[in-house]
Amino acid sequence: MGDEPALEHALLEHLQFAPLSRAELARRTGAGDHRVQAALDDLITGTYVVRRPQDAGPADYEITAAGSGRLEVVEELVQSPLKMMGKLFAATVADTIHPRQTTPADPRDLLLSDEDQSACSQALANQYALGRIDRTELGRRTDLLLVAKTRGQLEPIFEGLPVPDLAEPFTLPPGAKGPTWGTVALMLLPVLFIVLIIGLNIWRGHASLPTAVLYTIIVICLVVWPFRRRRR
């Protein structure tokens, strides 16, 4: 998530109905062009939005399936914070104990990361700017990119074009295993302890439920997220 999550959420809300230009998004949100562009750049990096250059006029920005999913998560979190927090916590734990990909025999079977998707999207935009593909071809290839899962699936996307250099992924050697449930349980002990303290404060009337939910989410992110980053 970028530096201005509230602005990013507002941009996604406006984009869920139709692609819009940066100027139109700035007008609708009341934010300056620089802030809107910075937020759009963060959304593109996270693959929540794609930039579609136009033959005439400024580029349009379009929400992706990931962006629509992010909107749904935030809306459900607002409507039912405890239920959504439980879903996020369970999903985070499940993803944490799932081992990262092992080194495949064929490098083309390597899974595409968010950074890979972003680099490829920018590469296609650059080829369009250089006149090597037209707008229709850009849209077709971008649609293929959005559903691509492995590096091998990039071949038809960049047919006749130079394939961008992608960073080498961090992988486990064949046969290696990821963290076990026991490791995850030890990692979550501080979370359970702090949640217990927050619960006691609510019971004694020293903290409100919304405040407790907020602090619990922060604690989970602080404990689990660094572990997930080391795993990747």
Question: What would you note in describing this structure?
Answer:
This protein has 232 residues and is mainly alpha-helical. The chain contains nine helices and three strands; from the N terminus they run H-E-H-H-E-E-H-H-H-H-H-H. A three-stranded antiparallel sheet has the order 1-3-2. A hairpin with a 7-residue loop joins strand 2 and strand 3. The radius of gyration is 21 Å and the shape is flat. The protein starts with a helix and ends with a helix. Mean pLDDT is 75; it is low at 228-232.
Rg on CA atoms, Å: 21 Å
Percent helix, as a range, is 55-70%
Shape category: flat
| Largest sheet strand order | 1-3-2
Number of helices: 9
Please give the alpha-carbon distance between the first and last residues: 18 Å
Question: Could you tell me the mean pLDDT?
Answer: 75
Spans of at least 5 consecutive residues whose pLDDT stays below 50 are 228-232
The run of helices and strands is: HEHHEEHHHHHH
Tally of DSSP β-strands: 3
Instruction: Report strand %.
Output: under 5%
Largest sheet: 3 strands, antiparallel
Oligomer type: single chain
Secondary structure: elements and pairs:
Blueprint: H1 5-15, E1 20-21, H2 22-29, H3 33-45, E2 49-52, E3 60-63, H4 65-79, H5 81-97, H6 114-129, H7 135-147, H8 181-203, H9 209-231
Antiparallel strand pairs: 1-3, 2-3
Keywords for this entry:
232 residues; three-stranded antiparallel beta sheet; disordered C terminus; mainly alpha; Arc Repressor Mutant, subunit A
